[in-house]
Amino acid sequence: MKGKLLDLVLVLGGLVMIAPLVWLVVNALSEPINAFQLPPRWIPNPPTLQNFQQVPGLIPFARMAWNSLQIAVLTTAGALFTSAMAAYAFNRLRFPGRDQIFSVLLAALVVPVQLTVVPIFIMMRWLHLVDTTVAIWLPALVNVFGIFFLRQYISSIPRELDEAAIMDGAGHFWILFRVILPLARPGLTALGIFVFEASWNNFFWPYIFLSTPEKMTLPVGLVSLQGAVGGGPAVVLFAAITLVVLPILILFLIFQRSFIASIATTGLRA
């Protein structure tokens, strides 16, 4: 009885969380006159793609999508590489001040990102990188949460595998890339989804560092689209938001098993 009640609660909770997404897609596929009805419609009648066709005429959607994809891919690849290297060092290597340095890194997680924008902006201006996409993905190559997340995941991998590899003459790089990372693939997948999603939806940094319209990303484009729509139909904006959300949703659906497995096992061992 308790199990069925718990399942019912979880189903209801899932429906509540997915309802706004369904409502977004339904209104994006609806004609302006049929949108925002009360009670809300959950099936567009009749469905139309006219709202999606209007988006490229208001903003350079394809160019902004390419900018967002480029930044997200570079950020994800770089963050995974640096996080894996640092996580291995903090978990497997012993060196003076290891725990103290790791504690300082964890303390950086509680620092609001707004406090770092001024020194990073000065640094990017000194490097002549303001108004370039490099200013967006370069500071994101080091991800403190990624280091902590992978360190906890690597803790669940038996150290006996490292010792066996060392007896065969393997070095740290061989152990990391041939032993640890293949076993940590679920954790890498989950972290990749986290970083990609955060970079894809990032509005603050592109809004601060980018001023040229051709270099702007989709979140900034959505804000400009909201102004472009003005008194026009909001369903066009909903269509653009749907196009931004779909890649992340598809990415999660593809890698959901690895994502759930990594979350379930991370931190089981200290």
Automatic annotation (TrEMBL):
InterPro entries in the cross-refs: MetI-like, MetI-like_sf
Transmembrane segments: 5-26, 69-90, 102-122, 134-154, 175-196, 234-255
Keyword terms of this UniProt record: Cell membrane, Membrane, Transmembrane, Transmembrane helix, Transport
Topology class, membrane: Multi-pass membrane protein
Annotated compartments: Cell membrane
Primary subcellular site in the record, as a coarse category: membrane
Top-level taxonomic group: Bacteria
ABC transmembrane type-1 domain: residues covered: 65-254
Record-linked PROSITE patterns: ABC_TM1 (PS50928)
Family to which the UniProt record says this protein belongs: Belongs to the binding-protein-dependent transport system permease family.
The protein, known as: Carbohydrate ABC transporter permease
